[in-house]
Amino acid sequence: MSERFVRPTAMDEGFNRVVGFLTRIGLPLAGSRVLAVRGRSSGEWRTTPVNPLRVGGERYLVAPRGNAQWVRNLRVSGEGELRAGRRVEAFAAVEVSDADKPPILRAYLKAWAWEVGRFFEGVDAGSSDEKLAEIAPGFPVFRIGRARP
Prior knowledge:
DUF385 domain-containing protein, seven-stranded antiparallel β-sheet
């Protein structure tokens, strides 16, 4: 498991605040959602904007900045919520193995490179499977599905 983490710049934080606000009031940008996950120590809800992705009938969350706090919290809790306006969708999450990430990372880059491409350090949707497999450990991916009863 890679410890890669790209700290957000002031501009990133401002962009996230705007996207988060718009999503919270029910105007998600290009399908964005606000991810809510309980803190692994505090148990308090922690939120951040994310870009859910559908690949082959499954839904995923990709962490373009690497081992962010939401990733650490989701690993511990295994569940969270995706929020947009008044709509709240509870989900269960399973981390995807590095070997299974390349097609998901490729689809993520096709959909979201305009926003997150700079975090992928020269790798893009047209990169080889080998190159995507090489960077996979630095980009946590979670398959999300129905919440546990």
